[in-house]
Write a structure and sequence with these properties.
By secondary structure, this protein is of the alpha/beta class. The chain has two domains: 6-179, Leucine Dehydrogenase, chain A, domain 1 (Rossmann fold, 3-Layer(aba) Sandwich), CATH 3.40.50; 188-342, NAD(P)-binding Rossmann-like Domain (Rossmann fold). It has 14 helices and twelve strands. The chain has a seven-stranded mixed sheet, sandwiched between helices. Strands 1-2-4-3-5 form a five-stranded mixed sheet. Strand 1 and strand 2 (51-62) form a beta hairpin. Helix 3 (80-96) crosses helix 14 (394-413) and helix 12 (345-359) crosses helix 13 (365-390). The structure holds nicotinamide-adenine-dinucleotide (NAD).
Length: 421
């Protein structure tokens, strides 16, 4: 990767999209910078009685289209640059799906796997104590991201309720069902991507039995494996942070899910059901029809992109393909269904959760699935049509689609607005 920041890489997409639209340069200027990024040092008591501190951030990138929305990541390598970039992507993702939100994101620089459950709870509560004045159901609404989950969202929403002195479930989404979470949130990210692939299958000329490789086997990776395997597709390779397994005849998804449920790596299934260990790097280039990045940013880059054999990439992760790799893949005829569309099922069902919390009326899982499918198909089709019409990649079309909505909202606010929500 070059010396540029992750945000510089992300902004390349903005310039590419702007070239296809005639919009006021003020709009681009506004979208090139985060509106506010707050940093805090969270100090918690460890189980052994010592104190430890962790860096944390919350970024509200742009709130032109509504309250900022975006997950909280717990990761040892998180940085302010990463948080701002993820918040920039959220701004576009919410606009892609026409959700009434801007983009935000948060992180704590921590390896949560090294904390006990009690320490993790104290850290999650400390995050809310530090950022309670920034978040709010009509201001900034967090959700889970890498290495955070519904249990953590439950602690966070409880802490927020204690601080403001009333139940305020709409402040955080991805909560446990018992605390106002939505049915269907667990697999929403993967399900949205799955609906998108099914809807565009004919346009993309997909086979009914695709061979699929999945990079990252957490929330997004596990659910997409289950959904595709249930349709008869063959999952030939998966990886996690400790390694990868491969079987050209198809991996046994149940074995992989069992290993993860026991807290093991996917590599613990090696030797069973024909599963062979391969290097994580080899996974990117295995012979398959569909590659699903579902781990972290920049994992497909200029040094490994040429090895990709898949003709379709479904970006469930945020920012998994660098701009340089994008060009290599396009030149090789690989179509990418980009993150801001492909993984937007998560924020869409988060939006459903927020609506249900505000209404105090809860929908069935069938309702959730059908509303999610409708939005994924509507926006996916619109973006596909823009890409055909303008002769662009699907990624550029998705940015064009979102940017025109953002530009309309920015212009509608008027030139004197400082959006001081
Ligand atoms: P998760 O924490 O549940 O899973 C992450 C997975 O990635 C784990 O299996 C981990 O072992 C694996 N991983 C980490 N480093 C790796 C490496 N170097 N090689 C291979 N695998 C590696 O996280 P998640 O919620 O599934 O999120 C995954 C991606 O999807 C992230 O980019 C996230 O921002 C994005 N995303 C998630 C959601 C959601 O609702 N969960 C929504 C939109 C986007």
């Amino acid at each position: 990767m070059s010396e540029d920041s992750l945000l510089d890489h992300a902004l390349v997409r903005l310039d590419e999209a702007a070239a296809h639209l005639s919009i006021d340069p003020d709009v681009i200027e506004k979208l090139k910078f985060a509106r506010e990024t707050t940093k805090a040092r969270l100090m918690i008591r460890m189980d052994d009685g010592s104190r430890k501190s962790f860096l944390a951030w919350r970024c509200r990138y742009d709130d032109t289209r509504g309250p900022t929305k975006g997950g909280i990541r717990f990761h040892p390598e998180s940085t302010a640059d990463e948080v701002e970039t993820l918040a920039f992507w959220m701004t576009f993702k919410c606009a892609v799906m026409n959700l009434p939100y801007g983009g935000g994101k948060g992180a704590v620089q921590v390896d949560p796997r090294k904390l006990s459950k009690a320490e993790l709870e104290r850290l999650s509560r400390a995050y809310i104590q530090a950022f309670a004045r920034i978040i709010g159901p009509d201001r900034d609404i967090p959700a889970p991201d890498v290495y955070t989950n519904s249990m953590i969202m439950g602690w966070m929403s409880d802490e927020y309720a204690q601080i403001v002195g009333r139940a305020e479930p709409a402040v955080i989404t991805g909560k446990p069902i018992a605390l106002g979470g939505s049915l269907g949130r667990g697999d929403a990210t993967a399900r949205g991507g799955y609906y998108l692939v099914c809807h565009l299958a004919e346009d993309l000329g997909l086979s009914k039995t695709m061979r699929v490789a999945i990079q990252g086997f957490g929330n997004a990776g596990q659910h997409i494996a289950s959904l595709l395997a249930a349709d008869g597709h063959k999952i030939v390779a998966v990886s996690d942070s400790e390694g990868a397994v491969y079987s050209p005849a198809g991996l046994h998804v149940d074995l992989l899910l069992d290993a993860k449920a026991k807290g093991q790596s996917v590599t613990a299934t090696a030797g069973q059901g024909g599963h062979d260990v391969i290097s994580s790097e080899r996974l990117v280039g295995v012979d398959c029809d569909l590659l699903v990045p579902a781990a972290l940013e920049n994992m497909i880059h200029e040094r490994n992109a040429a090895s990709v054999k898949a003709k379709l990439v479904l970006e469930l992760a945020n920012g998994p393909v660098t701009p340089e790799a994008d060009k290599i893949l396009a030149a090789n005829g690989t179509v990418i269904l980009p993150d801001i569309l492909a993984n937007a099922g998560g924020v869409t069902v988060s939006y459903f959760e927020w609506v249900q919390n505000k209404q105090g009326y809860y929908w069935t899982v069938e309702d959730i699935h059908s509303r999610l499918r409708t939005i994924m198909e509507r926006e996916g089709r619109a973006i596909w049509d823009v890409s055909r019409e303008k002769g662009t990649t699907v990624r550029t079309a998705a940015y064009v689609h979102a940017l025109s909505r953002l530009a309309e909202a920015i212009e509608a606010h008027g030139t004197q607005s400082f959006f001081t929500s």
